Amino acid sequence: MRENVFDILERRGFIKQTVYKDDLYALLGSQSVTFYCGFDPTADSLHIGHFIPLMVASIMQKAGHKPILLVGGGTAMVGDPSGRNDMRQMMTRETIESYVEKIKPQLARFVSFEGENAARIVNNADWLCNLNYIDFLRDYGAYLSVNKMLTADCFKTRLEKGLSFLEFNYMPMQAYDFLRLYSDYGCMLEIGGNDQWSNILAGADFIRRALRKDAYALTCSLLETKDGKKMGKTQKGALWLDESKTTPYEMYQYFRNVDDEEVENCMKMLTYMPLEEISELCAHRDERINNAKKRLAYEVVKIIHGEKAASDAMTQAQAAFEGGNSEMPTVTIAADGNTGLLDLMVACKVCASKGEARRLIEGGGVRLDDKKVTDVTGKIADYTDKNEFVLCKGKKTRLKVVTK
């Protein structure tokens, strides 16, 4: 007998909240369930925060269930107030449509579009942009409780500072998405990050009220550091799934350097590795945990960018930190011996500004080849006469620089 996917997700630490748990468990164990997860195109790439619900969708499909990945081309025109202290910046329809097209291939890396449980990608702009507001109010307004909506966390945190009517409409729109997918595809379950709990719960409740049919909600744990902050933030911003925004090497290095306490949880939620193997790799909190970190980084990059990219990133990291620089990440810039070190660091993109570069040098965190940089007014020629050298920022960034 095939194992119930709810047990698999629970053991790997994915499940945070759900409703009608016993009924949902029985449903997932007795038939192939169509479920959906939504992704608003708020940027031209998904980021690591989207990784966990995509992994849940992938695992559920492998267990025999049918995923729908919804791209929010319609809801993005309103903007989700969840987790926000202010209103999102409005985007043009053209911008949203361009973002939709860019994130679709990223979604497709996690699920299969072939076989009896084939996934599908839908865009809620197809129905929301043509929705008649009066008809919507008359048909469904009575099933949406304003009192209940105002108790939702995503609204409570905004009421003191001001919540626009525009944003107030986001929850009904997402609830309507669930109803449409239920009607069109028999979708009975919505999944998403735990920061979406209020919106997801509203959709399941909407179907139960309006259609008097069973519908379910399930949220996933967020990827957090040991101090409760969301993982995936770097000095350059979010960890993007688009390799032109976050390279496979940068992604590899991020997970290669996570805290020891976070390795096991990341392995459970961001890889397909068997739990027994994860336990063995994470059994020790000494130097042996570094092998687990390397494996974690490799597996994450392999899922996002493919096996070759993961192997290349691993080779580059080994060259940079374990000897040799032939395979080290390399950047070629227009510079010569008279180029200032602050300009060098900005040109190589190891710093976002000269101010940041200055602070790093003053803090003793910069080396050029084997020489510590101490003078913020120094030039390349003060430290090397070669047109190829290694620039080090702290202990975790090593870059081969070629000047022309």
| Largest sheet strand order | 1-6-5-2-3-4
Number of strands: 13
Structural class: alpha/beta
- Please, what is the oligomeric state? single chain
Overall spatial form: globular
Radius of gyration: 24 Å
Uncertain runs with pLDDT below 50, 5 residues or more?
A: none
Separation of the first and last Cα atoms: 64 Å
What percentage of amino acids are in beta strands? 5-15%
- Compute the average pLDDT: 89
The largest sheet is: 6 strands, mixed
Helix content: 40-55%
| Tally of individual helices | 18
Put the structure in a nutshell.
Helix content is 43%, strand content 14%.
Describe this protein with a few key phrases.
single chain; 13 strands; about 400 residues; six-stranded mixed β-sheet; globular; five-stranded mixed β-sheet; alpha/beta; 18 helices
